[in-house]
Design goal:
The protein is an alpha/beta fold. It has three domains: about 160 residues, Thiamin diphosphate (ThDP)-binding fold, Pyr/PP domains (Rossmann fold); about 130 residues, Rossmann fold, CATH 3.40.50.1220; about 180 residues, 3-Layer(aba) Sandwich (Rossmann fold). It is built from 20 helices and 18 strands. The strands form three sheets. Strands 9-14-13-15-16-18-17 form a seven-stranded mixed β-sheet, with helices on both faces. The protein has a six-stranded parallel β-sheet with strand order 2-1-3-4-6-5, with helices on both faces. The chain is globular. The relative contact order is 0.11.
Length: about 525
């Protein structure tokens, strides 16, 4: 076998069986080796940002890494934005980044770059396999690193000659590390502080929003402690039969108003909340004056076990309150995010997965789906828009028996619109909804909040997407996805019903203006 064979065999032996790829010349040995390893599913993505976002979605839904195949430094750079989001979600990913042959680097060919330096800001592990014998062992090491506390993307740089040279060395099968057990002293200290607090809150991060952790948090809430989540979490179990925590508001002043009077904030798999951006004369840290903070468990600790231990220490009831299924009434009239949220809640089946890149439309839909059938919500953890379509691809590959919805703004959707082609090619059961307001609506809001005032003609041209208007139905159809445009709440409700009853790729342009 050659180094590429050793790499793919080692990945597959360690449970990495999906590869989201945009290969180039340096990666041809890897591509050829895929024909010799039937356990690895290869998914072609026409832009590296689609590949990295898809790997993020796959990892969020399975808890195990997919791999990406990226072409040298520029290929990695094209995918970096969604790796930033994955870093903030603590998603395990193994990035295989092709490089020039080791003896070719010295010539500084046009695609030559410092790949390790490019990858370092988003990665928890970066190494280069400088020989074929090193490839397999480093591949196993990369998988192990991706599971590290609390998880993240590992980058294995693969020089072309390390891939084509022969080797007899495959990597070992690694033992997946387990999260740290909760600290009994921390549990006792938090329980004592909660009992003495007049107005406490529990703040849950991404690692504390899975079904087991949410269930335990519901028990804690039953003792009178208010429970919130971070504004954006990697994956949250919600809907019918699940406890519903509140969400920390996005805008800093709204968050501080919501937390007014809180004297104790207990952090679970998160850190002290901060504003998304700085604004004139507004605080950055979103902890009220006089509020103490305690950490129940950090991101490397088993959050579900910590919350269960806390519930026991507080003498909480065996179960907490959970949401009933309560579908909204059929929406009518004006097509807005509230009406669309009602339609989604009415028609999304149990086990649905929502990939949220909807920006201004996201919160109303999140609110409207609180009583929908049980589902998972994947948020834009790093704030780099263009995640919605790619994340849905990865979720659909990971969970082929579940309905996946990608909710995206028209501005965000254009970042990674190439993903529609992959959805069509792989025949994924993904419904993409684009909220076509033909503007960067969030930037219009932020213009005022930052003190920029009302946008004039020049500023408005940087916020407007209506000249020319994007014909989303034509775009989606040209990339192979059946598409329709709807202009009323009733029409959207009917389109969503069709999409949820059918299977395969669907695209709905919600014409909001």
């Amino acid at each position: 076998m050659n180094g590429a064979d050793a790499l793919i065999t080692t990945l597959a032996d360690n449970g990495v069986t999906a590869c989201f790829a945009n290969p180039g010349t340096s990666e041809m040995q890897f591509v050829a080796a895929l024909d010799r390893e039937p356990r690895m599913r290869s998914v072609l993505c026409l832009f590296e940002g689609v590949a990295t976002g898809a790997a993020d979605g796959y990892g969020r839904m399975t808890g195990t890494p997919a791999c990406t195949l990226l072409h040298l430094g520029p290929g990695y750079a094209n995918g970096a934005a969604n790796l930033h989001n994955a870093r903030r979600a603590f998603t395990p990913i193994v990035n295989v980044i092709g490089d020039h042959a080791t003896d070719h680097r010295k010539y500084d060919a046009p695609l030559n770059s410092d790949i390790a330096a490019l990858a370092a800001p988003n990665a928890i592990w970066v190494k280069s396999a400088e020989s074929a014998d090193a490839v397999g062992p480093l591949a196993a090491e990369a998988v192990a690193a991706s599971f590290g506390a609390p998880g993240g993307n590992a980058c294995l740089i693969l020089p072309a000659d390390s891939a084509w040279n022969e080797t007899n060395t495959a990597g070992p099968v690694i033992e997946r590390p387990k999260p740290r057990a909760p600290d009994p002293a921390a549990v006792a200290a938090v329980a004592k502080a909660l009992k003495a607090s007049a107005k406490p809150v529990l703040l849950l991060g991404s690692g504390a929003c899975g079904e087991a952790a949410i269930t335990a948090a519901g028990r804690v809430a039953a003792t009178g402690v208010r429970v919130l989540t971070d504004t954006f979490t990697g994956r949250q179990a919600r809907g019918e039969g699940r406890f519903r925590p509140d969400k920390l508001p996005y805008f800093g002043e709204q968050a501080l108003k919501d937390l007014d009077g809180v004297d104790l904030m207990v952090l679970v798999a998160t850190t002290e909340p901060v504003a998304f951006f700085a604004y004139p004369d507004r605080p950055s840290v979103l902890v009220p004056d006089g509020c103490a903070t305690l950490t129940l468990s950090d991101r490397a600790t088993d959050a579900a076990a910590a919350l269960q231990a806390l519930a026991e220490a507080l003498g909480a009831p065996a179960t907490g309150a959970v949401e009933p299924y309560a579908p909204a009434a059929a929406p009518g009239g004006k097509l807005d995010a509230w009406a669309m949220g009602a339609a989604i809640a009415r028609h999304m089946p149990a086990g649905g997965i929502i990939s949220d890149d909807a920006v201004t439309a996201g919160l109303p839909i999140f609110t409207q789906t609180r009583n929908a059938r049980a589902h998972d919500w994947l948020s834009l953890t790093g704030g780099a828009i263009g995640q919605g379509i790619p994340l849905a691809i990865g979720a659909a590959v990971a969970c082929p028996d579940r309905k996946v919805l990608a909710l995206t703004g028209d501005g965000a959707g254009m970042y990674t619109v190439q993903g529609l082609w992959t959805i069509a090619r792989e025949k994924l059961d993904v419904t993409v909804v684009v909220f076509a307001n033909h503007a960067y609506r969030i930037l219009g809001i932020e213009m005022g909040r930052t003190g920029g005032g009302e946008p004039g003609p020049a500023a408005s041209r940087l916020l407007d997407l209506g000249d020319p208007r994007i014909d989303w139905v034509a775009v989606a159809g040209g990339l192979g996805v059946p598409a329709e445009r709807v202009e009323t709440a009733e029409a959207f409700d009917e389109a969503m019903a069709r999409a949820m009853k059918g299977t395969g790729p669907r695209f709905i342009e919600a014409a909001m203006r």
